[in-house]
Every structure is written in C-alpha cells, then in structure tokens.
Design a protein that fits this description.
Elements: H1 3-25, H2 33-36, H3 42-72, H4 85-98, H5 106-125, E1 126-127, E2 130-131, H6 133-157, H7 160-170, H8 179-197, H9 200-208, H10 210-215, H11 220-242, H12 248-260, H13 264-288, H14 297-318
Length: 319
C-alpha cells in the first residue's frame, strides 16, 4: 500500500474518532467527557458507546455489502437490499408483531426472513446452473415489491401501537436493547467483512467482466455464490438489530472509489471508514436536531444520501 492511501486512512480514522467523541457527548442531555466518566453517568456512557459501536459496525457491513454487489453485478445502482433482504426481514418482523410474538424474538424473525428472501431471489435467478445478473436484479425487485405490499397490508390492519413501533424499526434505529445481540451481530458482520476482504483480487477481476475473470483462472460462479452468501449474512445480521437503513450501501462505495480508486484491497477499508463517519454523523443529527424528539436514522441517511448520490452520479457521467 502506497503512502497516499495510508495518509487517507489515517485522516479518516482521526475524523471517525472525532465524530465518535461528539456522539458520546451529544444527546438529549449534553455532557462533558469528565461528567460521562463519573459514577452517576456510567449507564449513559455505556448506552452511547454501544450506540456508536452499532453505528460503526452496521455502516461498515452495509458499505462492504454494497461494494460486493456493485462488483459482481457490475451495476452502480446495486445496494445491499437488492436481494430482497430488507423486505424479507421487514415482513418477518411485522408478521411477528402482528402474531404477538415476544419482542425478544423479532430480531431472530427478521434475520431468518432476510436469509429466506435472499434464498428465494437466488433460486429464481438461477438458470442451467448459472446465476444470471439480470435475472437476479429482476427477481430481487419482484420479491421486494411483493413482500412490501404484504407489509403495508399487515400494517394497515394492525393496531396503532404496533404500527408505530414497527414503522420506527422499518426506518432504522441504533438503540441497543440487548448487548448479547449486539455482540452476536458484530461477530457475524466482522467475520463476513474479513472474509470478503480476502477476495479483493477476485472482486477486482469480476468487476471488470466475467470473461476477464475466467481468463485469470477464477471460478466466477463459485465466487458469486460465496460473495452473495456473505452479503446475505452481513445484511441479515444488520437488519435484525438496526432495521432498514438505506443509502449507506449505495453511496459509500462510490465515495470510496472517488477517494482511492477501484482496487478493492484499498477500497474496502477506506469505504468502511467513510461509512462509519457518515453513519455516526447521521446518528448525531437524528438524536439532537429535533429535540426532544428523535428521528429514525434511516430518514436522515435518505435525506442526506439522495442529494449526495445525485452529485456522485453527475460527476461520474461527467468523467
């Protein structure tokens, strides 16, 4: 790795530390660092630190998932929820609430719903043992629309209290209710991201085209299966805890390429840092801008992400 990417990684790391400190200090009640470490404020410190960790882990996972899908599908509009994970998780979570399942099992329901929807999309897109890119995209769109329609139906026929809670979840939340769940989710996402980073060379080749990858001796179909499985695992774990947080997996890979280029060996760590800064910053805004109310973080990422994506799209077209 040359000195320039190292300098950019160092700079982004410093920025992340800075915004993380602000996220710990800022909240419904602003506290100085010295006050946070006092005995009476230990619980607030732990909750805010857990929230920052969740923001960083989920942002990194969504960014890596977006990078993988944009590479193997060679589609700049690909994002982690393209495989139907969000709608599948949402449907499972809404169904669990409507059926009166304990809130402790909603994350588990969401996880398996996301995995199941990915399996359905994958099965629909296979033909003669090969995974069709166009079929995968279309299958993902169709499954997402179908599941989303069922979600709307269930929400419209459920009681108002349940509707409010699940609507908040569908727009994303970084509140930590269970530290064990946070640990399990973090372990799954970190393991998935680490495994994906080992395939940087293959991602570089596949992103250039399947024929080029085949000439380099890469088993494209096998790697696509593995990478799609990693995306499904990472995204399902994140959604089960945080709900659906849009735009992170779509815009961050583009921002990362603008900073360090398309080499996935460097792109993945840089995009993770950019995503973490973005997510923690959005969380600060969601918690503090409209006090005493808190806005779902997915609303903030969408409001900020939309103009950012338009700018990135125009810039790429100009280049």
């Amino acid at each position: 790795m040359s000195s320039l990417p190292k300098a950019k990684i160092l700079f982004l790391s410093v920025v992340l530390i800075f915004v993380a400190i602000i996220a710990v200090i800022k909240g419904p009640v602003n506290l100085h660092l010295s006050e946070l470490f006092s005995a009476e404020n230990q619980q607030i410190l732990h909750l805010r630190l857990a929230r920052v960790i969740l923001a960083i882990i989920s942002a990194c996972g969504l960014a890596v998932s977006g990078i993988i899908l944009q590479a193997i599908l060679r589609n700049p509009l690909a994002e982690p929820y393209l495989l139907g994970t969000s709608s599948g998780a949402g449907l499972a979570a809404v169904g669990a609430v409507v059926l009166g399942v304990s809130t402790l099992y909603i994350p588990v329901s969401a996880f398996f719903g996301a995995v199941l929807s990915t399996f359905i999309v994958y099965s629909l897109s296979r033909k003669s043992g090969r995974l069709g890119i166009e079929s995968l995209i279309l299958s993902g769109v169709i499954v997402s629309i179908a599941f989303s329609a069922i979600i709307v139906f269930l929400l419209s026929t459920s009681n108002k209290e349940a509707m409010h809670g699940i609507t908040w979840w569908l727009w994303g939340s970084l509140e930590v209710f269970d530290y064990k769940l946070l640990f399990v989710m973090s372990a799954i996402v970190i393991l998935g991201m680490f495994t994906a980073s080992l395939f940087s060379r293959e991602l570089n080749a596949i992103s250039l085209g399947e024929e080029e990858a085949l000439h380099l001796g890469i088993n494209v179909e096998w790697f696509k299966k593995i990478l799609l499985f990693l995306v499904a695992l990472i995204t399902a774990a994140i959604i089960s805890v945080c709900g659906i947080i849009g735009f992170v997996g779509l815009i961050i890979p583009h921002m990362g390429r603008l900073i360090v280029g398309p080499n996935h060996k460097i792109l993945i760590p840089v995009s993770c840092l950019v995503a973490a800064v973005f997510m923690v910053s959005c969380d600060i805004i969601s918690r503090t801008l409209f006090l005493p109310s808190e806005v779902p973080i997915g609303v903030v990422t969408a409001i900020i992400g939309t103009p950012v994506f338009i700018i990135l799209l125009r810039k790429s077209e100009a280049d």
